[in-house]
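Researcher: For the record, we're logging two predictions in this thread. I'll number them. Prediction 1 follows.
Model: Prediction 1, sequence and structure:
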Amino acid sequence: MSTIVLLTLTGLALAAMYFLLAAGLSLIFGLMDVLNFAHGAFFTWGAYVAWWTVGRAADVLGPTGAFLLALVAATLAVAALAAAVEIGLLRPLYRRPIYQVLVTLGIGLALSQLTSVIWRPDARPFPQPDWLVATSTVFGARVPNNRFLLIAAALAVLGGLLLFLRRTRYGLIVRAGAENREMVQALGIDVDRAFTLVFALGGALAGLGGVFGAAYFGSINPNFGSVNLIFAFIVVVIGGLGSVTGSALAAVVIGLAQQFGNYYTSWAGDFVVVLLLAVVLLVRPRGLLGTLQ
């Protein structure tokens, strides 16, 4: 029983990390029709900004204060980076999707190399407060506390995104702009500013996910985001391109399948994920939901 509980909670925490990374991808594609291949690099930069912040603030604020500051710093820094990328490089290419893909892919590669130059290519342990590393007992299973924090963060992000899309003025503007950009502009609404906000929000989610991903794995390296980006794309495709709730559902399925598969065999976890992707593409090509929800 304790093993099932441990695998379930750990799988849900892995799913939460995938969702934090995939939510930004899904949001940007669903609202802007842009496949952002630089998203993995944003995830990596969030982790490294957090690592850098904790290393300099721990003596002043203590481990917990430094970790909280790192969450804020990583989120804001990557949001600013994403906004700069959208304004400077992507905005002129909204009607040229192939160029968008090439540009975001190039940005991702460049940022990954820059990460190695600035922070060196070696893996680095990610410092966490003792209470995050400590474990809590749930039905006999000893589960690290950072798993619970990661799940709570993903639930909060999911709720916040749904409120943003359905209840805020900017959320409604962006959804309308995604459907008919010319009509919204004719009403005197600055769609470009709204799209920049969306891209910055996607970057902020990647930065936040990078911090929690670093806490989940305990270490970071320059390829940290690239590896997880593959699974994030699978989450987005299975959930439905542009569906935030679909991404959340797909992340849970993939996280649990991967965790249980890797526990019982050394290879089945990733195989099951690919098999799920193939089945969904054959049976339901638009994904589990497939619309902006």
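Researcher: Logged. Prediction 2.
Model: Prediction 2, sequence and structure:
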Amino acid sequence: MKKIVFLILLASAALILNGCGRDSGQKVLAKVNDKVITLDEFKERITRLPRHYQQMIRGQEKAFLDDIIKEALLHREAVKSKLEDDQETQEVIAEAKKKILIARLIKNRVEDKVAVLEEDLRAYYDGHSEEFMLPERWRASHILVDTQEEAEEIKDILDQGASLEELAPDRSKDASAKRGGDVGYFSKGQLIPEFENACFELEVGEIGSVVKSQFGYHVIKLTDRKSPEVQEFSVVKELIKKDLERGQKKQLLEDLINSLHNNAKITINEEFLGEFAVEEDELAEEAQ
């Protein structure tokens, strides 16, 4: 868990070090040499993380603080070593700054502009009902044994009025035995053909003849059948919302890029790209 917390710490963009040293009346959680980490700064550091990371840290606050201290120590040592003046470091910082600025621009111009209304969700649902159609489904319970003789014996017992659901835990070798033999709902093509074909021929509540498959011998009872139906709006509402938001983001980003592109002066020397392709081909030949 500590390794995970440390990775979360390194991945977070909001460095608490930027705010260290401001202990004006605040509760001092920790000191690292001349740097102060206040309780408020610590809480803020956690709240800036994505929600699923916050949940991972819950109960591991001491480990998270330990990793902040490690980061402070490493940062101080890097500064003492004058690594921030290194050309390669400056190039990495410049590239990171560029990406952060782009991310902020996209957030301001794209993500914050996305707005999907309730009526938008309902309109999409009503106009695309075929996307939310559930196929015909069957539900069955079974008892699986190794020999046909045992399966026929079980079939006879069930024909005399015994309950398959009560018999399955003691007689079936399948994992479904603990659920009374219930395999749940399935649609065509999800289970082995022998099992499915037997179910398709049964009426609800009927127990069929013994069926052989690669797993053994099955005694099958069809317990339910559902006709094709459209899922309720409440079930698919969040899925629709995510899809519409994704579509809006894509469109807003394309519009932003197109606008910037149309208002910019761009010149491309395509002959240089041709030279680059030749160099790539030469490298490939040398590698062979």
